[in-house]
UniProtKB/TrEMBL annotation:
PANTHER family in alphabetical order: ABRAXAS FAMILY MEMBER, OS07G0540200 PROTEIN
Residues in coiled coil: none
GO cellular component entries: nucleus
Pfam family, one: MPN_2A_DUB_like
Signal peptide bounds: none
GO terms, molecular function: polyubiquitin modification-dependent protein binding
Record's protein name: Uncharacterized protein
Superkingdom to which the source organism belongs: Eukaryota
Native source organism of the sequence: Dendrobium chrysotoxum (Orchid)
Amino acid sequence: MADDSLLVEKVTISGATLASILQRFSSSPGDVDGLLFGHFIRLPPPDPNDDDPSSSYSAAVGSTTLAPFAASITGHFCSGAPMTFYDSVGRIDPHSVRRASDQDRLPILLGWFCGRRRTHLRPSMREIAVSNSLFETLTPASAIDPAPPRPCIFLLLSFSSTENQAIHTHEYRAFHLRRKPVGSGVLEPRSLHIVNIGPDFRGQYGSFSPDSALPWMPLRVEDELAQKETLRSLQDKVAGQLLLDSAADGFTMERLAHLIGPGVAEYASELEDLYRNMLLKLEGLARLVEKSSARVLEQENKNLKIRCRLAGLE
């Protein structure tokens, strides 16, 4: 069981995950809530020659025997409605939480999120109760020794828009459940770092574990037994090829297998070809969307002419 004195000093989330949560929230008819999944990563100890020993990070390390953690959010589950895994007083339903976790096969449960419309970014009494109940009820399974902290992250979102829907405003704030020696815990605000792709975010890659959509490729073993194809291996190969086709057309699993292992330097052109096929795939999708939009516009113009004709305006 995790030590209650451990702290989560940093919270990171991928730009795609945050955009997905905001889109699901803004497109829902009302308030929503859901679960957050990802990884806990132990932060390195601070430099003993740090000029600012009174900083929050140094104070956190000094108050515990272990270094604080960083919570990396890589996935979420949202049902599109409020109070889907807890009751009106904030009691957690463990069966609903485990069913949502097993269904999506997501990594460690970090905490939960709540989206409210036109409200301040301050946790309510019910949200504090839900966070405490989630912390006390569920213990994530992990092979890490010592085990990572229990679910202790809370993400609060707010959405508002103008009357004509021309301007949409999204606000969000992360909190960490800090346990007290006596009584329930309190939600303390934490800075939320958004991890995107690009050189400006290279410094955050060391503490962020993204999920890749490409098929897993084991290292090739030069063995006669390894060359024999079984029914299971053929099924995995077909499934991997379908997954690869969704990202790049005309690139086979055999070519992808050459891009791992000690001889990868000899296949630099293969890697460039993979990127080229991915760009062609994206270009094809963009053209398909463009054609679909043109057809939709054409159909809307036809419908407008029909309505005008029926109304006697022509």
